[in-house]
Amino acid sequence: MNGGYREKQRPGHQLQVDVKFIEPLGQKGMRRKKFYQFTAIDDCTRLRVLRAYPRCDQKTAIEFIDHVLSKLPFAVERVQTDHGVEFGASFHWHLLDKGIDHVKIKPRTPRLNGKVERSHRIDSEEFYRLLQGQVIDDANLFSEKLQEWEDYYNYHRPHGALGGQAPYEGLRQKAKTQRCDTGLCLPRHLPGRLLPDCPGTAHRKIPTG
Questions:
Q1: Which of 10, 98, 107, 148 is 20 to 30 A from 79 in CA distance terms?
Q2: How far apart are CA 26 and CA 79, in angstroms?
Q3: Kind of pairing, strands 48-53 and 78-81?
């Protein structure tokens, strides 16, 4: 192997996980709530899972990664993070107990988590910019809007790195071409959506677009 970066060709081989601080949303003069957007992106398909929390600590990071694992339609082998305190020992051992490797990038090298960093820039440009001037001081309402954005990003937004496909369309194609031992033959349930066809696997629901 050479020392360069190689694209992960298997869904779930590696997730990049990071946290984006969200500026308080609301009107000036009001007591405004802060949120932290936890993000996981699959290195291969660019499929993302997002969730906003009022705290950024290890308990929250563990809650988030359990949400990610329950939502993705494939098994996860490795999680990559920076050295944030929210990704400390408790988070590390929680992953290892689940049989998932946890690696940290070198300090002060955010480029090594480049996919999640770029996706956060997209969030700022295409999602949070649209919220400017809106009063969103309710965590549930904010979570609903963030879920709508996650769905659009995964199922409808074209990605240049994927040849203009949305991440889930790329996953569908990989499910048709890769062997069943990749784990795509036994995908987890995504509510209301039909998962990709694979020999020996029952049909399930995914967005039809």
A1: 148
A2: 34
A3: unpaired
Separation between Cα atoms, residue 22 and residue 98, nearest integer Å:
30
Domain residue spans of the chain: 15-163
> CA nearest 55: which of 22, 98, 78, 13?
22
Q: How far apart are CA 131 and CA 148, in angstroms?
A: 13
> To 5 degrees, how large is the angle CA 89–CA 93–CA 94?
115
For residue 75, what are the contacts with CB-CB under 8 A and spacing of at least 6? 12, 183
Please check whether residue 158 is in contact with residue 165, taking contact to mean a CB–CB distance below 8 angstroms.
Answer: yes
Share of the chain above pLDDT 70, in %: 72
> Smallest Cα–Cα separation from 76: which of 40, 106, 110?
40
Report pLDDT for 17. Answer: 98
Give the mean pLDDT of 46-71. 96
Indicate if the pLDDT at residue 207 is higher than 90.
Answer: no
pLDDT digits (tens, 9 = 90+) for 106-126: 998 888 999 999 999 999 999
Distance CA 173, CA 63 (A): 31
The pTM for the full model equals: 0.80
* Residue 164 to residue 167: CA distance in whole angstroms: 9
CATH code that applies to domain 15-163: 3.30.420.10
